[in-house]
Amino acid sequence: MKSKHMNVFSLIVAGALALVTMQPAQAQDIATVAATEVAQYGPHPGVDPVPDDKGRLPFLPHADLSMPSDTGVTDKGWVWVVDGGNHQLVLFDKQGRRQAVLGGPGKDEGQFQGPVGMDLGPKGELYVADRGNNRIQVFDSKLRFSGAIAVKENGKVANPVDVAVGPRGKELFVTTSSHRVLVFDTKGKLLRAWGGEGSEDGQFKYPAGITVDGDGAVYVVDVINQRVQKFDAEGAFLAAYGTLGATPGNFFRPKGVAVDASGNIYVSDSYLGVIQVLSPTGEFLHALGEGGVPTRYETPVGMSVHQGRLYVTLMLPGKVSALEVAK
Known about the structure:
Blueprint: H1 4-21, E1 32-33, E2 35-41, E3 68-73, E4 79-83, E5 88-92, E6 98-103, E7 118-120, E8 126-130, E9 135-139, E10 145-150, E11 152-153, E12 156-157, E13 160-165, E14 171-176, E15 180-185, E16 190-195, E17 207-212, E18 218-222, E19 227-231, E20 237-241, E21 254-259, E22 265-269, E23 275-278, E24 284-290, E25 293-294, E26 300-306, E27 309-314, E28 319-325
Parallel strand pairs: 1-24
Antiparallel strand pairs: 2-28, 3-4, 4-5, 5-6, 7-8, 8-9, 9-10, 11-12, 13-14, 14-15, 15-16, 17-18, 18-19, 19-20, 21-22, 22-23, 23-24, 24-25, 26-27, 27-28
C-alpha cells in the first residue's frame, strides 16, 4: 500500500506539471510577463576529438558546455559561464564568441573539480566555488590566479556550492554542503557563519544559489525546503518566501536567485522550468511567460541580472540565455 506521504507527493507533482502545461483559459489567475531571448552563450560547433596512440581523448577547452550551472556578467557585458562538466569557466563576448577558457580538471592552482557557482568583484575579480576541491579560487581581472580560500569551519572542510560578493567587495558569502552559509573576507579569513541542517527559520536543507543585494541583504535558495530565505549581512533571519507547492510563489526545486535594481527577486525552479518574480517583500508578481502560461525553460539554474537583462543558465541545453523582461 502506498504511503500517505507518497500520495501527497504525487498530487503535488501532478499539480506542478499542470502549472506549466495549462492552457490560457485555465491559467487566467497566473500573472505572466513576456521575456524575449536576445542572445545566447554556449552553443559551439565543436570538433571531433582525435584519440592519441593510447586511445585517450584529449581535453578540449572549446568543446560544448557540459552541465553549466552559473553565470556572471562583466562591466562591458561579456558573459562568464561555469562549465562544471568540463571543469572550466568560459568567457563569451557580447556576440556569443568565446574569448577565454579558464581551468581544466585537476587540483592545482587554476584547475577545478566540478565548479558550481561564481561571482564577480567590483574590480573584475572572479570568485569560483570549486566544489570538488573544497575551495573558492580567486582570479584577477586579467585572469591570473591570485589565491584560494579553503572552505572549512572549525577544521571541518565543506563543499562550496555558490559564492556571492558583498556590496563593498570585501566579503564573500558561500553556501556549503554542510547546510550552512560561511562568510569570508577576501583574504580567506572566516568571519562568521550561520545555518545548520533543518527546516526552521535560518536552517537549510541543501542551500544552493546565493546573492547579495545593494543594501547588503543576503538571499539563499533553500532547495529541499522549497524556499528562498532572506538574511541581513550578519546572518539574522529576515524572511522566507515559498514552500513546496504548485501555486504561484511556491516552488518544487528552486536553484537560482537574482535581484534586480528595483529589488525584485527572480527564482528559477530547475524541475518545473519556471522562473518566478517576487516583489522586494516576497509577494508573487508574475512568472516569465505569455498569456497566463509560464514559459517552461530547460533546467534553469544560476542567474544574474545586468543592465536590465536577466541571464539564465540552462543546464541541459548547455547554454546561457539573455532575456529582455518586459516592464
